[in-house]
Amino acid sequence: MTAALAHAPTAQADPHPLLDVSGLAKWYGPHLGCRDVAFTLYPGEVMGVVGESGSGKTTLLGCLSGGLEPSAGRVTYHSERWGAVDIHALPEGRRRLLMRTEWGFVRQNPRDGLRMGVSAGANIGERPMAVGDRHYGRIRAQALDWLKQVEIDQTRLDDRPAQFSGGMQQRLQIARVLVNGPRLVFMDEPTGGLDVSVQARLLDLLRDLVARLGLAAVIVTHDLAVARLLAHRLMVMKDGRVVEEGLTDQVLDDPHHPYTQLLVSSVLQA
Ligand SMILES: Nc1ncnc2c1ncn2[C@@H]1O[C@H](COP(=O)(O)OP(=O)(O)OP(=O)(O)O)[C@@H](O)[C@H]1O
Ligand SMILES: [Mg+2]
Q: Is 123 touching ligand 1 by the criterion CB < 6 Å?
């Protein structure tokens, strides 16, 4: 596997972090979701979040993207429109606008991220229309272009997602999320639930898109191979806390925390 993404790109070029996270915690009543999470993400940088089931990865992603209200801590986002904003103090309408423009969220299950009742083209065209594009020909051309970019045959434009395979649905979701040119994309297990061979192709595609578009991303996965391929940096979570953080290659090749050592060695034995 190559490590083409190993060097975080633009931390020096752009002095503003995209995301600044401090003291983040989420409790579900007495149950811990995550706690003491702090990190900074720069434009173009990909953060992987790994850890076993129940370690708090999805909880963290929910708190970062504003969908879940944290019990403590702060998530500051440097918006193109409004400058630095506290995501959890942002009016809901503005957060929704961010989600359609500067941000994207790729769900593990494409059915949760697609509108199954409308065509592939309508799925891709929804966000451009939501921010005011009413030019049918342009929206259709853009949808065709995105089908090509995610390697779906352009003749499928008018088909509904239900007629697509799981891998195609996931690629369609990615097109739908990327069409408005977000700078920050959250992904929760984007390759989960797919065949291994389909996973590999999707991973290649994601890696190309992320690099070509200069996307910043927070990618949750329990698959270290996915993390290795996509992430510049890794956070390893266990029982709701980050137990290790660093450059991906360093964390995976020279893990310091016993839990990370266990994760890495269990993959080697598998
Ligand atoms: N709605 C909820 N109510 C109560 N507890 C919850 C809720 N959602 C998550 N939790 C708890 O928070 C902890 C973290 O869950 P989370 O879903 O964030 O883990 P995860 O790392 O995403 O796991 P997986 O890999 O299985 O998706 C778990 O102990 C879980 O039981
Ligand atoms: Mg999860």
A: no
